[in-house]
Amino acid sequence: MEAFFQALLGGLVLGLIYVAIAVGLTIIFGTLRLVNFAHGAFYAIGAYVGLVIAQRIGVGWAFVAAPIAVALFAVLLDRLVLRSFYDKEPTAQLLVTFGIALVVEETLRLIFGATTQQYRMPEALQGSVTLGPITYPAYRLLFAGGVIVMLALVWLFIERTNYGLIVRAGIRDRVMVQLLGGNIRQASTIVFALGAAIAGLVGAAATPIYSIDPGTGFAFLVPSFVVVVVGGLGSFWGAVLGGLLIGELQSLTNLAYAPASNVVIYLCMALVLLLRPQGLLGESEVIRQ
Amino acid sequence: MSAPPSVPAAVTTRLRLDGINTYYGDSHVLRDVSLHIGAGETVALLGRNGVGKTTTLKSIVGWQKPRSGSVTLDGTELVGRDMMSIARMGVSLVPEERRIFTNLTVAENLKIAQVTARKPGWTLEHVYEKFPRLRERLTHKGDEISGGEKQMLAIARALLQDVKVLLLDEPTEGLAPLIVREVENVIREIKAAGITTLLVEQNLYSALSVADRCYIIDQGEIKFEGTPQQVRDDAALRQRYLHV
User: Fold this and answer.
1) Position A254 pLDDT exceeds 80
2) Any A CB within 8 A of B102 CB
3) Which chain A residues contact residue B113 at CB under 8 A?
4) A182 to chain B: nearest residue by CA?
5) What pLDDT sits at residue B5?
6) Complex ipTM
7) At what angle do helices A184-206 and A162-172 cross, to 10 degrees?
8) What domains appear along chain B, each with residue ranges and CATH number?
């Protein structure tokens, strides 16, 4: 029973990482219609920036530097490369973002080598917490709480601010936003930077839990795309539901029969696509240009 | 083209199109379209389906870029500017399909118009006074309201901004006769408020009832400029270009 609860909490932590990456993916897709295969690279860059800063300056600064560095990288990428692909067909977007992801991965390999790396948390956060029948690492619980707070802030930004209103309107109809004088480009840049910053922050914060290597970006990107498809493209709550579902499914299957833990998420995606092609919380309506 | 009843000398030209040529790919849709609207005028652009009415509006707001020609607002060139800049200069399009944000509530649809406005236009109270049904539907999503309410919302959204020229594309399309009359009354109120309006309509008699002047477009060319009375009186003209 203890192992089951351990797996349940492990699934929650893993699921929250997926949620954080998938929320970025889904709001970027919703607003920009961009299928961003480079999103995993944001996670990886954040993880490595976090690693370097945590080892040289301190863990606290890692959590500040990683999202800022990744957001700046994302803005540059958006301005210099991706902007000209927004109106292109998905195949072109897929190829260019996939190419960027490969360039990032190989650059990280060149700088940091191919070995897995991890940084240790400060002593104060290395303890465990007893929760009924199980003891669980305190940092993992803190991480889960932090991600939940961050997602709540992102939700408040989208639902309660004027920029969020433009973003939500842009998800439905980019042309009409512009016909009303809305600066959809600026809103898109902010959304792109925000999505990237979330991935970067989670990458930095998750490194003490999951060690990193240059291929980390893809390792988290693929399940996160599954999450987006399962939850529904463009849906915030779909990403949350899908992420938690996939995280738990993977973790519990790992407990029951480890070799099936990766297969099961694709089976889940196939099942959802068969029964509800728009995803669990997605809309079937065709979104405007 | 018939002899135009020009804008009275005292009325300054607010919007002017000079020799606009617009293409969709290789298809030449607008051919040297020229028209002008005086400040405070309501002008109707009439024509059958697919003759270039909507493309004319799209060319004005920068949605479809003309390859040649000029569009000026109070003498300032609009061609080459993007949709956002043109909207912020005071040209507001209420598009054919209304394009309400169906994932937002009525209140949020109104709010976004206020948020994106460079300068405020009507107040919310004024909007609710003119469109009382919107006040009753504030918490409804954009896809939960009727076609007439969507049209009112689309017009209200435009009026919440500082509109210099209002472009209405088929505002009565698909509406029940009773609602069509309501929309006509709204257009009359807009006219009474002194807002310059270019009205694109297939519903001929609805357009003639509110317009000061009208143009007829056919095959992408302006074929007639005159008064509503001239159109009413000229059966051959109506038959040739409007099939009514």
Assistant:
1) yes
2) yes
3) 180
4) B116
5) 52
6) 0.92
7) 100
8) 13-242 (3.40.50.300)
